[in-house]
Design brief:
The chain has about 270 residues and is of the alpha/beta class. The protein has one domain: Spore Coat Polysaccharide Biosynthesis Protein SpsA, Chain A (Alpha-Beta Complex), CATH 3.90.550. Helices cover about 25% and strands about 25% of the residues. The strands form 5 sheets. Strands 1, 4, 7, 8, 10, 13, 14 and 15 form an 8-stranded mixed β-sheet that branches. Strand 11 and strand 12 form a beta hairpin. Helix 5 packs across helix 7. The longest helix has 14 residues. The radius of gyration is 20 Å and the shape is globular. The protein starts with a helix and ends in an 11-residue tail after the last helix.
């Protein structure tokens, strides 16, 4: 699929939760705005999608939505060089544009307490493409999004879920007798898949949802799609990490600062 077509496919990012397990950060800001390497995790996710050609993002906002709205309202100017004339009749002169100048970011407040299914349904008027990508605002991966897109296009079902092997919460020890012969920090588990996000849905899955704030996503739409045999899995065997706790945040920060972030597929 060409870059021009990928650029028109909507990417929904769920950004509305309270992030209670990361309350040291989320007491003040929404979880997707927690910074890794000086940039919000949300920016990292969007930047990753843009590397593969996706340019249109719809953000399902909720808790402290004003922080995300203000960030994208301000970033156009904060990331550019310009001359401003204090004479209000003269226009701003922009000298250089940010690398993200092609992004289209749709910020929609979907309710403070709305569950994920209700949030997605409330975005329906803003979804323009016949199928759309969807992910959570708190996870990064090195999943091949073009291959994922191709996989979805080749089967006839309504939904694709990326299945991942989660990282261990603790280091993995390889032992011979009583001697440790290898220690791996937070390895990917060798068996057992979980929902890693990075979904693709045909537009008609919206019929499985309502705009009610109690309409869930995982314990609702996904369960029903599975029962109807409309949910396929794209198995990703590479890197995946969510940011649920302060420990997760510190781990992602460490990878970034050491130049070892697997999700960084861009130069700069």
């Amino acid at each position: 699929m060409s870059d021009a077509l990928l650029a028109k496919i909507d990417v929904i990012i769920l950004c509305g939760g309270y992030g209670t397990r990361l309350k040291e950060e989320t007491a003040l800001i929404p979880k997707p705005m927690v910074e890794i390497g000086g940039k919000p995790l949300l920016w990292h996710i969007m930047k990753y999608y843009s590397v593969f050609g996706f340019k249109r993002f719809i953000l399902a906002l909720g808790y402290k939505s004003e922080y995300i709205k203000k960030y994208f309202y301000d970033v156009r100017f904060a990331s550019s060089n310009f001359t401003i004339h204090l004479d209000p009749t003269r226009e701003l002169t922009v000298h250089s544009l940010s690398e993200e100048k092609d992004w289209e970011v749709v910020c929609i407040d979907t309710g403070q307490k709305t569950l994920k299914g209700g949030r997605i349904k409330r975005l329906e008027p803003y979804i323009q493409s016949q199928y759309f990508h969807l992910t959570y605002g708190d996870g990064v991966s090195d999943v091949d999004l073009v291959a994922l897109n191709k996989f979805h296009m080749e089967h006839s079902k309504m939904a694709t879920l990326t299945a991942v092997r989660p990282p261990s919460r603790f280091g993995e020890l390889k032992i011979q007798g009583h001697q440790v012969v290898e220690f791996s920090e937070k390895p990917q588990l060798a068996s057992g898949f979980i929902n890693g996000g990075f979904f693709i849905f045909n537009r008609n899955v919206l019929d499985y949802l309502t705009s009610d704030e109690n309409c869930d996503f995982e314990f609702g739409m996904l369960q029903n799609l599975a029962q109807d045999r409309e949910l396929m899995t794209y198995q990703h065997h590479g890197y995946w990490q969510c940011m649920d706790t302060t420990r997760d945040k510190e781990y992602l920060e460490k990878l970034w600062n050491n130049g070892q972030a697997p999700w960084k597929k861009w130069i700069s």
